[in-house]
């Protein structure tokens, strides 16, 4: 399996509850390295661009408002098979369906306030990383 990079967000519900370190510890324990990280506060419009793929969904407005409600931590994670590994560590989108030991099982509040986002494929990982980070900010 190849070394990959993937994009990760620690969402407002988690930063608000001071869970940033606990979540990063889960990634690191799974063998993922944080090669870029910053804490930012998105506008609703910036969240809307990031989640544009969901703009026809009924929850789009609520999702963008939520993502702009508090600071978030955006990160790039690197490791073997990082895209799939990150999704495994995060658990299912809906915390009610997430496996034991996953971030969402342990920390998420609901399907909307689900503590973390992670890229779902190589092309989206590249696009999402490029939306938030310049090449100079990626330090492997
Ligand atoms: P994420 O992995 O960030 O990708 C899109 C997000 O939309 C998802 O996590 C959820 O937080 C959110 N989402 C998905 N389905 C719903 C829903 N039914 N209601 C509210 N938010 C949702």
Give me the Rg, rounded.
14 Å
List SSEs in N-to-C order: EHHEHHEHHEH
* Number of DSSP strand runs: 4
> Which hetero compounds are present in the coordinates?
adenosine-3',5'-cyclic-monophosphate
The biggest beta sheet is recorded as: 4 strands, antiparallel
Q: For the largest beta sheet, what order do the strands appear in spatially? A: 2-3-1-4
- Helix fraction, binned, reads 25-40%
Function: Major role in the synthesis of nucleoside triphosphates other than ATP. The ATP gamma phosphate is transferred to the NDP beta phosphate via a ping-pong mechanism, using a phosphorylated active-site intermediate.
Main location: cytoplasm
Pfam families: NDK
Cofactor: Mg(2+)
Concise summary:
Its cofactor is Mg(2+). The chain has helices at 12-16, 20-29, 44-50, 60-67, 82-90, 103-107, 122-132; strands at residues 3-10, 33-40, 72-80, 116-118.
What does this structure look like?
It is found in: Cytoplasm. It catalyses: a ribonucleoside 5'-diphosphate + ATP = a ribonucleoside 5'-triphosphate + ADP; a 2'-deoxyribonucleoside 5'-diphosphate + ATP = a 2'-deoxyribonucleoside 5'-triphosphate + ADP. Homotetramer. Its EC number is 2.7.4.6. Major role in the synthesis of nucleoside triphosphates other than ATP. The ATP gamma phosphate is transferred to the NDP beta phosphate via a ping-pong mechanism, using a phosphorylated active-site intermediate. With 140 residues, this protein is α+β, with helices and mostly antiparallel strands. The protein has a single domain (3-135), classed as 2-Layer Sandwich (Alpha-Beta Plaits). It is 39% helix and 20% strand. It contains 7 helices and 4 strands, in the order βααβααβααβα. The chain has helices at residues 12-16, 20-29, 44-50, 60-67, 82-90, 103-107, 122-132, and strands at 3-10, 33-40, 72-80, 116-118. The chain has a 4-stranded antiparallel β-sheet with strand order 2-3-1-4, sandwiched between helices. The protein starts with a strand and ends in an 8-residue tail after the last helix. The mean pLDDT is 98. Bound molecules: adenosine-3',5'-cyclic-monophosphate (CMP).
């Amino acid at each position: 399996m190849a070394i990959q990079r993937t994009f990760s967000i620690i969402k407002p519900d988690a930063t608000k509850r001071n869970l940033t370190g606990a979540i990063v510890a889960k990634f690191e324990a799974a063998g993922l390295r944080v090669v870029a990280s910053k804490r930012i506060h998105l506008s609703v419009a910036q969240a809307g661009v990031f989640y544009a793929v969901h703009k026809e969904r009924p929850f789009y407005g609520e999702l963008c408002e939520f993502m702009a409600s508090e600071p978030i931590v955006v990160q790039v994670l690197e490791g073997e098979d990082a895209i799939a590994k990150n999704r495994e560590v995060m658990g299912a989108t809906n915390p009610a369906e997430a496996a034991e030991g996953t971030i969402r099982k342990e920390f998420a509040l609901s399907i909307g306030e689900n503590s973390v986002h992670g890229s779902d494929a190589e092309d989206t990982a590249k696009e999402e990383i490029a939306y938030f980070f310049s090449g100079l900010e990626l330090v492997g």
